[in-house]
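Recall the central idea of this unit: under ordinary conditions, the amino acid sequence of a chain determines the structure it adopts. In this exercise we apply that idea directly, starting from the sequence alone.
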Amino acid sequence: MKQRILVIDDERDLCEILQFNLTAAGYQADVAHSAQEAIEKDVSQYDLLLLDVMMPGMSGFELASRLKHNTSTAGIPVIFLTALGDESDKLHGFDLGADDYIAKPFSVREVLARVKAVLARTTITAADSDASLLSYEGLVMDLGKMTVTVDGQPVSLTRTEFDLLHLLLGHRGKVFSRQDVLDRVWPRDVVVTDRTVDVNITRMRKKIGRYSSCIITRHGFGYLFVV
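Accordingly, the structure predicted from this sequence is:
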C-alpha cells in the first residue's frame, strides 16, 4: 500500500509541484491550501504531513499544535516547510513535535530525501509489530497502534515524545546522554540543541502522570528509566 502524504500550503503552484513529484516517487499525495481545509479532511489517514507555517488564518504552528494534542493524529510525523529560517522558529517547530524543518526556498530533491528519511525513521516494521506492547505496570505503549495509556487512560504524545518514551522504557536502567538521545530520536541532518531535548523530556514526563518519577536525570550523564 502506498504511503499517504498531505501537503498543506497556501501556495497553489508549490502544492502542484510537490504533489506531482511525490506521486512520481511512489507516494499517494493530496493537497490542502489552508489549515481549515486540512482539518476538514481525515488527517488521521495520512502517514506524513508537509506543513507550511505562514498561512492565512490558522498558521502551521497552530495546526500542528492542535493535531499533536489529538490522540488520533498525535503520532503523524510533520515536516514544516517555511520561509521562517531563524533558529528560534526552528526550535519552536521542534518543540511542537516536528520531525523535520525545511526552509524555503528548497529543492524538490531535498524534500523527497527528507520525506524518505522521516518515513523510514517513523515506520514500524513487521518485526517490531511482533512484539508491539511495551509496558511497566500501568504504563503501556502499543508500538503497532502508536498509542500510550496510563492506567487504562489514553495519553496524547507527540511523535518525538513517543520516541523518547520508547527509547527510555525499552532500555530500562540504561543511561542515555543528551547526545545519545539526539542521535536516536532526531534526524541526523537536523540541528537540535540540548534545550530541545530537555523541553521534550519535561513535556513527556508531565503527560505520563505518576510514572514521571521513573524518568530521572543523572546530572552530568543523562536520562534513564528506573523501576
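Residues 214 and 227 are 6 Å apart (CA to CA).
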